[in-house]
Design brief:
Keywords: Transferase. This is Group 1 glycosyl transferase. The chain has helices spanning about 35-45, 60-70, 100-115, 125-140, 150-155, 165-170, 180-190, 225-230, 255-265, 280-290, 310, 330-335, 365-380, 380-390, 395, 400-415, and strands spanning about 25, 30-35, 50-55, 75-80, 90, 120-125, 145-150, 175-180, 195-200, 240-245, 275, 300, 315-320, 340-345, 360. With about 425 residues, it is of the alpha/beta class.
């Protein structure tokens, strides 16, 4: 199965994970129209049983919920009981000892599950160690194996001294899924045949992430940080730009601080920003903000379970990643109606078209990022146009589309030759 290039229009109107419309596409007015290929893939997938090996924690529902919606039966072998998927059968590793012990036990539990019950395929996301465990089950039981690529697999592991081993492992999978064309091309350079590479949508909940009138968040979620702006800003926005992510080297939060400093040096002294997230670099970033005298410009919101309030309270979204796949926070921000400023890394250009629904900067220098922010903040019509077009990701990156992708992946792995009978060994 080769990677498909989409131009949008796929169903994403309801965003429901457990009642996905089978094989449907959406028109501009929200009507659903079934397609023959997707309907066939789903009809075959619903006869198959898939075993999943995972430690993705709270991300399991988003990544594997669409699979559980289309497969005949999905069983998740997970590290912790809170990691389950509503529509799947969940098997949990015994909660004993340190995490390292539970990671080892994960393979033992998956091995026992595959031996006791009858499965047609095994799925995983992230090569180490879940993908390796999937290959172990393939070797022992002959199960077709899937690997979902995340950024670190290609950006880091494949480029290290042990890279030849990583690339060899990639080629052992029956299907390797990626978020977009950039990763597909890189997989081919690793020797993975094009017919084994599949597109797997990084989905968002389109019922949750949708445009909303500015300033309509609960008062309790607001802080005194922007109290001086609440009455002055006629649009009701609290922040000019929002940055969301893990405070780690790959997300490069320091670069955002430098870009805001550059913006202020150009006379934009009243612009404000919020950085949402936490991580190893948080204290360094806080010190960086103080060193540049930006305490009144940049708010550090810390970790939040859901940044949607901050999306609704901001005028634009900025991403500064050095490396990334296709970050969920970008898709969420666009779905809520924020025009993004992003670098050309990973599969980001699969979601952002420069000059149409956002700005892709030519390089990651703070001056270049500041110029892009300046354009969006100064040119209201440009920002509104990009923001309006950005919401189209609600169609392309929906749970329903992810379900269709999973159906094709399952069919590609299994060939649909084994009919699910509900029997167990």
């Amino acid at each position: 199965m080769s990677l498909r290039t989409r131009d949008g229009g796929d169903d994403g109107a309801d965003g429901d994970r457990t009642e996905t419309t089978t094989g449907a596409k959406s028109s501009a007015d929200g009507d659903e129209r079934p397609t023959e290929d997707s309907s066939h893939a789903r009809s075959v997938a619903e006869t198959q049983r898939v075993l999943v090996i995972t430690g993705l924690a709270h991300k399991n529902e988003r990544h594997y919920g669409p699979l559980a919606d289309v497969a005949g039966e999905t069983t998740l072998v997970s590290l912790a009981p809170v990691e389950g998927v509503d529509a799947a059968r969940n098997v949990t590793v015994p909660q004993v000892g340190p995490r390292l012990l539970r990671v080892v036990l994960l393979f033992a539990v998956a091995l026992l599950e595959a031996r006791r019950n009858e499965y047609d395929a095994v799925a995983s996301i992230s090569l180490f160690l879940y993908g390796c465990y999937a290959l172990g089950l393939k070797a022992i039981f002959g199960l077709p194996a899937h690997l979902g690529i995340i950024g670190i697999d290609l950006d880091h592991h494949a480029t290290q001294r042990y890279g030849p081993v990583v690339r060899w492992l990639f080629r052992r999978f029956d299907v390797v899924s990626v978020p977009g064309p950039d990763h597909a091309a890189r997989l081919e350079r690793c020797g993975v045949p094009a017919e084994r590479i599949a597109r797997l949508t990084n989905p968002i909940d389109v019922e949750t992430y949708r445009p909303e009138a500015a300033g309509t968040v609960d008062d309790d979620s607001d802080s005194d940080f922007d109290s001086d702006r609440d009455d002055e800003d006629a649009a009701g926005y609290d922040y000019d730009v929002v940055w969301v992510g893990r405070f780690g080297p790959e997300k490069d939060p320091h670069r955002f601080v430098a870009a805001m400093d550059e913006l202020e040096s150009r006379g934009h002294e009243n612009n404000t920003a919020v950085m949402v997230g936490d991580g190893a670099l948080h204290d360094e970033v806080a010190a960086h903000i103080r060193a540049r005298g930006l305490e009144d410009t940049i708010e550090l919101a810390g970790w939040v379970d859901d940044p949607i309030d901050y999306y609704h309270r901001s005028r634009a979204f900025v991403l500064t990643s050095e490396r990334d796949a296709l970050p969920l926070v970008l898709l969420e921000a666009m779905a809520t109606g924020l025009a993004p400023v992003v670098p050309r890394v990973g599969s980001i250009p699969d979601a952002v078209t420069d000059g149409k629904n956002g700005i892709i900067v030519s390089d990651r220098r703070p001056e270049t990022i500041a110029t892009a922010m300046e354009r969006l903040l100064d040119e209201d019509e440009l920002r509104r146009s990009h923001a309006s077009a950005a919401t189209e990701v609600r169609n392309t990156f929906s749970m329903a589309q992810a379900g269709s992708d999973w159906a094709e992946i399952v069919v590609s792995m299994t060939g649909g030759s084994q009919q699910y009978s509900g029997s167990r060994r």
